Amino acid sequence: MKHVTGLFAAYLTFALCGASAQQASAPARAAAVSKVGVVTKIDADAHQIVLKMDAGGELTVDLQGNASFRRVAPGETDLTKAAAIALADVSVGDRVLARGRPSDDQKSVAATLVVVMSQSDIAKKQAAERADWDRRGVTGLVTAASPDRITITVRGADGVAKPMIIVAAENAIVRRYAPDSVKFVDAKKSSLAEIKAGDQVRARGTKSDDGGKLTADEIVSGSFRMLAGLVLSIDAQENQVRINNLETKKPMVVKVNPDSSVHKLPPPVAQMLAARLHGGQPGADGAGRAGAGEGAGGGRGQGASEQNAGASPAGGRDSAGGGMGRGTGGGRGGGRGGDVQSLIERAPSITLADLKNGDAIIVSSTVGASADQVTAITVLAGVEPILTKPGTREMSLGQWNMDVGDMGQP
After folding, report:
1. Could you please report the per-residue DSSP string of 85-113?
2. pLDDT of 114-126, one tens digit each?
3. How far apart are CA 249 and CA 372, in angstroms?
4. Which domains, from first to last, does the chain contain?
5. Distance between CA atoms of 151 and 177, rounded to whole angstroms?
6. First and final CA of the chain: distance in angstroms?
7. pLDDT value, residue 346
8. 3-class SS at 11?
9. Within 13 Å of residue 322, how many CA atoms lie on the same side as its CB?
């Protein structure tokens, strides 16, 4: 989630408001554009910077003789508080907004303003925001909703689910994830009135003394779906897999992007979860106990702190916006309770190339615009024991839920 992009947009608004009178007398400036990206190359002799654009591709920034360089702290929206710097103060990895006139082929910009957020400042800001979400954040499923408050179910450190009422503080930031995306940069301005029962919510704010209410400074919500299917074909180059949906019996496409996580459950863990789901007991060989130990305490314990430069609070796996509640706020109790999401996150990561035709997978995704295509939040393989009904060969998702997770994280 690129909160920085939005911040640069705020800068641009500020700068343009101050220059509106000049623009009226200098129509040529109306052609100026603003481009945002991460610095990949600096050529001081040629007075050029190369950016990797947020929208994809590269852009060459040709620095004009009168170009102004400003450094601003992440979170600051007042350009007058930006520090004047020089080209020598810009580093590879910094995020930059370059404003100027584009070339005819749109591959370069003749920049007169360069606004910089340093990579180190962004990292510090992200770390502070992650810590605040961990300390003041909660995650849960909405059980009741009204225009001015919602009720979610959260898990405490003891693993017990309890209701919590969430109200929005004055000037609270409320956003809702767009279809097929859990990136905060794609989330749209929203309100409590748009949240409905069954949605997943992540919020941070001030909790009441009894823990039953949260006055939220920031709320992000989303609607999710879960499905299961058998792999029909794999296109690793296009990062997608074609499956036969077990519920609809129809083929569909599951797309995977850099924010998606793909895991495979070890057999003991899958057997333990299947026993839990179907009301049986782990086998005499103790597979269930071994699975619980492997999932809750072993594995590589992948967290959700992996960030892309410029990520912002609460949003995709890079979020400062990928897993809603991965090890935060609601307290999943993975070490002791062996909850589903913790077990999944600790399962080995794989790629689509590791799948084969006929494999069963479970997919969590946002509710997208197309019924026959989804962009995955999580793809989970090794799930045959979970999907197979006891005493049969029939597979069905049934009531099983991987606790969705992955919805925007600081």
Report:
1. E-GGG--TT-EEEEEEEEPTTSSEEEEEE
2. 999 999 998 998 8
3. 11
4. 3-117 (2.40.50.320), 125-222 (2.40.50.320), 224-387 (no CATH)
5. 19
6. 9
7. 84
8. helix
9. 20
